[in-house]
Design goal:
14 helices; single chain
Length: about 425
């Protein structure tokens, strides 16, 4: 089989980069607006909680960005691109460090990706591989930013409305911005990972929409259940998060994740994975994914039922009379619908269905995501030795889509994992 080339930067990649920075700025602006409204109305406690979430998210994202920048500077290909002026301040360590300390590193990564993408797509200059490299990193950083800030903020906003039994305009704006951020992250992150696979071009808009929809239908009831639980047992939600977070971090450690380039960075990654799993599932290690996914969904479903039953028992019947029955019925049904749509996606909408099956693929091998073969080349192939590959995201894609039964695909996957 002839080696598949790297993905080339296109106008779609450029559009995703521009929309990504717009979403980031809108989300950040809505956060500032909500914090200002809390402060102006004298809600100092909620003002402090919201600012703490914003700072925590920003610090975590900047730390990942800085870890990656330190590693990337050791790559000859990256140094050549940075020296050519394709990334803003990429070859000036002190300026880059200052930007990250000022919590601006993530924003300048966005600007660099748009600038490089414009040079490649519009001006037809060289550097397509590097433009793709930047967008892959941004997709992961947006994933981290979303689940460190947007998902907790969404939970907070719903909790505040439940506690006050009323909603203001700025709260609806914040919820809409958070949902938009989560929705866009889901599509962009999945699309970025699939760029390492040969059927990226067959990822239709219908497939992307279905992927977005079932994720949203699984995340929304989870966030709502947490907010409802917090509205009746405010002091217990922190303990609930701490307990589950520790369990999830230990589970990530047991899976021997290997995403970062240092042990400190790896534990930061595992801690972040624990936070993401508190809201949503994604695969982080090689091997068959069906069992891990099943264990996770059974655990989260059980936890969600406990949260809802606790809220039902401790709620104020008079205050919640207008919506309690609707929520206790609709939230489990929404989560069930999300699971059904997930099964429907892998049965009818997954991109693997739009290409001829491998001759030695056996029915029921594993989770459909795990049946997507990787590009048939080794990273060490001489034809690719001069090109820039985002190693950490390639390895993450190999883990995310691992466990496939096809021998040729498994061999290709191993060539990725050997480089991790």
């Amino acid at each position: 089989m002839e080696d598949a080339p790297f993905s080339k930067y296109s106008w779609v990649d450029f559009a995703f980069s521009v929309m990504g920075v717009c979403t980031f700025l809108i989300d950040w602006g809505s956060d500032v607006w909500v914090a200002t409204e809390f402060y102006r109305r004298g809600d100092i406690f909620w003002f402090g909680v919201l600012v703490a979430l914003m700072l925590l998210s920003s610090v975590v994202v900047q730390m990942f960005s800085w870890f990656w920048l330190k590693y990337d500077r050791r790559l000859p290909e990256f140094s050549a691109e940075s020296g050519a002026g394709t990334v803003l301040f990429g070859d000036r360590v002190k300026i880059s460090c200052l930007l990250h300390l000022l919590q601006l590193g993530f924003l300048f990564r966005h600007i660099s990706a748009i600038r490089q993408g414009f040079r490649v797509w519009w001006l037809k200059q060289e550097g397509s591989e590097y433009a793709v490299y930047l967008t892959h990193d941004l997709s992961m950083l947006r994933l981290i930013e979303t689940f460190c800030e947007s998902a907790p903020q969404l939970t907070l906003m719903i909790y505040v409305m439940l506690s006050a039994n009323k909603a203001r305009t700025f709260q609806f704006v914040s919820i809409a911005a958070s949902l938009t951020s989560i929705a866009w992250m889901v599509v962009d992150y999945h699309r970025s990972l699939r760029s390492f696979l040969p059927d990226k071009a067959k990822q239709s808009w219908g497939s992307s929409f279905m992927y977005f929809l079932w994720n949203l239908l699984l995340i929304a009831p989870r966030v709502a259940a947490l907010a409802l639980f917090a509205s009746v047992l405010r002091g217990c939600i922190a303990a609930h998060f701490a307990l589950l977070w520790v369990v999830f971090v230990l589970w990530a450690w047991r899976q021997r994740t290997d995403f970062m380039d240092s042990m400190d960075g790896e534990w930061l990654y595992r801690a972040t994975v624990g936070l993401i799993w508190y809201f949503s599932w994604f695969n982080v290690a090689e091997g068959r994914t069906r069992a891990r996914s099943l264990i996770y969904h059974v655990f989260i479903t059980s936890d969600g039922v406990i949260l809802l039953l606790t809220w039902w028992l401790y709620r104020d019947p008079l205050q919640t009379e207008s919506y309690d029955l609707a929520l206790i019925i609709s939230l489990p049904l929404t989560y069930l619908l999300g699971l059904l749509l997930k099964a429907l996606y892998y049965s009818c909408f997954h991109p693997k269905l739009w290409r001829p099956p491998a001759p030695d693929t056996k029915p029921g091998d594993d989770h459909p995501d795990a049946q997507v073969p990787f590009r048939d080349f080794s990273i060490q192939d001489r034809t690719l030795s001069s090109q820039l590959l985002n190693r950490r995201m390639a390895c993450h894609a190999a883990h995310f889509y691992s466990g496939q039964g096809n021998k040729q695909s498994t061999k290709t996957e191993s060539s990725y994992l050997e480089q991790c």
